[in-house]
Fold Fungal-specific transcription factor domain-containing protein.
Amino acid sequence: MAFSGQIQLPVSTDGSPQSAIMMNHTTRLRFTEHGLEKRKARRRCWPRDPACDHCHLRKIKCNSRHPECSQCTLYNVRCTYTPHIRKRRKDLRVQHKKLDDPVIVPGTGHVFLDQAMSAHRVPRPADITIDGEVSTRRDLPPASDLTILIDDYFANFNNVVPLFSEKSFRTMLHEWNQYPGHRDSITWACINVAMALAIQYHATNVRLSEPFGLDTFTKNTRSAIGDLVSQAVDLRSVQVLLGLTMLFQTKTDLQASSLLLATATKLAHRLRLHRKPEPGSPEDENASERACVFWLLFILDRDVSIKGQEPFLHRDADIEIDLPSTNQHGLTGVYHRDEGVWFNLFQARVHLARVQGCIYDWTYSTAAKDFTDEERRRNELCLTKSLGNWQRSIPEAFRYNRLSTNLPPFIFDHLLLLHFDYFHSVFKARRVYSDDPVWVWRLAEYSDQFALGWKQPITHMGCGPCPLAGKDAVAAPRQSPLPEGWNSLVDTARSCMGLWRQIDRHNDGLIRATLCVNTTAMIIIIANNLTLSEHSMHNEFLCDTELVSEVLDFSGKLVARSADDRMTKIHASHSELNRRAANAVALFFATKM
């Protein structure tokens, strides 16, 4: 058929080409709308996202862990999932919009809802907490108790751990009391975290009435986390997050501590706390407070890093501010009245944190996996020397072998934590720790030869699966599991367990914070009894056995109180390992007779 050069338009039933075009367009539009409806229907059938109610309401990422996701643990709220929460929120938004619209009241013109219906006040979204309960007022203890708490905090705790500037804090507290209309959640969180730290670290003897106490102050501080990270960057936000991190350290909650610390680090970077402020700038006016906050962040960062074997967040190369000193930063430190000696505990802790960073870099980092045996041995010797130099830098009156219980409780607690951090660093540097799977499972295999009679298998040591299972044996079952320099490790473990004896058994926070280090020391002593035939440290086995029994009895009570299945299995494995060590001791002395 030849092309005529004309375009023939479709003709409708009435003979009009335009009507035909409109008909075709309407038909296509109808099919397009039909397809859109089908897609919407399919979308409605898709499953909801796994975010819990709290994460969905705050529009944050949820890891959907059971029975409680990480965000709910961090914010201390109940973790729930409501399938139709979106529809309910949409309905609530519509209702609130209607309530916000002006209504006409006869004779008065346009009047807003809060004026026309003041007797029937409807709660706003800001008046409702995340878990659906009506939020409480920002109450504080009576003025007399509050004054004593804050005075004790700055006289005791803040002199050792300079989290706040006393002048700035008291100005903030005065404005809180004088101007109720200008109160904000960050100021409230600062006051609560200071009171919680004073109580947790025995810096005060104030007895508070219900509902005020450590748990209440901690919960109040946690409830303000959302405002800390969503409002303008403020030094106080970093201070509150660091205070919460210290409170969580006494609960051995590394995950929550890591999340809080990561948030505090990014806020500190935005505030450029790691940089020297320009002379005459606003930051230069509070340079001392900024420096103390940064070095406290530095300490906590390295401490959480080595405990969790995770990379620390701030590198040494990015730091250009000086270490805190007593004269520049107003730190009075710790004073030993009997010896007449001052000790800058905060500065000593910064130096230990530097060594902890080297321990991670040389022992647990990704690059450390490629080191040769000679490089590992050289690094281990260097770390051991650095830790020894650090220990010798402490005045003798404050060393762990001369620590006196006559010191004030808050100073004694801080010194205990300092020395347990040192013990922890020694064990980590030597890769002899309760969470090191290679050493622990090698020790368990070695103990099989002493499982006489009824054999209770050691299946759960709290350090992950056995890395030797299903592979060529890294070490034969009867090969010694002892590393080089074993005698010094045993002496350190004995000192650690002896110091642990001095902790008040009612001080739950300090016991939890030091339990893992003391468990490692206990396993080292058990290993020493298992291997009596391979070394000469036999004279103190009776004292060692008594120390181990005391720790096992106490940890058994803690496990029974917690009803934690995992902790029960770990305690059973430790008890079985100790039973085998007792058999090894009996066999050793039987063969010598």
